[in-house]
Amino acid sequence: MMLPKTRQLPGANVNPWRGLRNLPREMWILFTAVLINRSGTMALPFLALYLTQGRGFTTGDAGLAITFYGAGSMITSPLAGRLSDRLGPLRIMKAALLLSGALLLLFPLAKSFTMILTLAALWAIMSEAFRPASLTIITELVAPEQRRAAFALNRLAINLGMSIGPLVAGFLVLVSYPAIFVVDGVTSILAGIVLVVVPIRVRRQATKAAAESNAISDSPNEPANVLARRTFLQFLLGLLLVDLVFFQIEAAMPLYLVRDLRLSESTYGMMFTLNTLLIIFIEVPLNLAMERWPHNKALALGAFFFGAGFGAMTFATGVFSVGMTVVVWTFGEMIVFPGSAAYVAEVAPVARRGQYMGFYNMTFSLAFAIGPWLGAQILERLGATVLWSAAFMCGCLAAVIMRRLRTKNSLLE
Q: Residue 45 sits in which domain range?
């Protein structure tokens, strides 16, 4: 696959981060709010331990609570996207952070399991409403050619925060399990206060809106139903295949490393650290360098890296070889996730960006709901070779689907 020719900026090789200087002030406000929020993310990763170790519920009960959260998340995404279009994404973001923070403060007070399930579902509805709204406002804050870098910057805030929150929670639970809900809730509220206090002006210039009206469309008349757009459905299918492969990190991968390869649990943790470090130091410069790539080529390359990385797990035998597979699929992650959000921003009509982002985000929720379970079942019943070969084929199929996506003429070679 040949690299498209791009114009090199003076000094670009010296400082690959310099392109961030052109992002508007509002992007850095959003970066700060997301970083504060994610730095306190600890309640969901430790929810199962809280319910089993802290409250004495069964493992099945803990799984059911997480399922309720997942169901709430899946339902919320398209609805929150539609509300973003009607009320404005900034309002949804503020409400999501403040209300989810308040619910987290109430969570340790729940006495019955029914109340815990109810709060888990409400918590998902409130917190997950933030995602499509945040993706929508990023689209409105930056120029089209800056979107990949902007979405990569947003993911940098998420990954920096996620490297802090669960680590702190691991020590906090030694003192008090309810404390993780308090810290998580307070940081959500603080992030919401940042967005309330610091003004964010969304610049929707007429020239920009006119340019955006040229988004890809399957017909001259935009269909009322998002899922009626063949091109967008094709994209969601390719993304779903990628997400199913990616979420093998939740169940199949740790089982394979610890049980089959007989590596330690700490080795699995090291793989997460490797993944996070690569994202923190490479993702933004990588997406700045690829900002002129056509979406179909970039997404196809990223999908192939996903398949190749997880597929190569078949041949992994130790820490080094497993680490190399993680490097490969992490490059896929760094290309696909910012690039896919930028693609949705391009194909969505201006007045319905939130709705499109909602269905985009729902794809992740669906893959999270079925991917870990499906991978674990294949591993148990058919073995590791079948599982990782299937992951490779899914990545390749996703690459073919993404390569066939239609793009704007301005982005074609």
A: 24-203
